Amino acid sequence: MKIIGISGSPKTDGNNDTLIGKMLGIAEERGFETETVLISGSEIGPCTACGVCGKGEKCPIDDDMQPVYDKLAQADGIIVSSPVYFGTMTAQLKALCDRSVLLRRQGFQLNNKVGAAMAIGGSRNGGQEKTVQSIHEWMHIHGMIVVGDGGHFGGILKKPAAEDEEGIKTAEDTVNKLCDVLQMMK
Which domain holds residue 119? Predict the structure, then answer.
C-alpha cells in the first residue's frame, strides 16, 4: 500500500517539508511505500475554472500538477501538511486542492482513500485547527475517509515544529492512525 505526503509550504526544507519526511518515515517503518509532493519544489498554478476536465480531458495548464494527478490517484493514503497563512492553508496548497477537481470530475478517483491532515502555526493556537479543517473539507469533497490523531483533528504543531514535543506526538498519532485504518482495509 502506498501513502503520499504533501507538504503545502513554499519554503524548501522548512517545518512542513521536514514533518512530512518524518511522518513518511514512520509509515515506511510500518511497511508502507511512500512518495512526496513538495510544494516548495513545484510550480502549480491556480484553477481557471475552464471546465475542460469536466469533459474528460487533460488539464490545459502546463505545470507541475500533471504528475501530482497520477501520484494522488495511485495512493491509498494521503497525508497533507500546511503552514498556517493568515488563518488557513497556503495559497500554493489551495491551488493544488482546487486543481484536483479533475480527479473528482473524472470518476471520483480519490473516493475511499484515507486522508489525514497536519498544520504548523506560529503559536499553539495560531489557526492550526482551522487549517486542518480546510484540508479535511477538501478530502470530504473527494469522498475520502478522514482520520485524525485518535482524539482530535490531526497533527497540530507550533514552530519550530522539531522542538514541539506535544505537537510531534499529535503528528505521529495521526500518521499511525492513517496506517492503522489502511491496514484494516486490506
Answer: 2-185
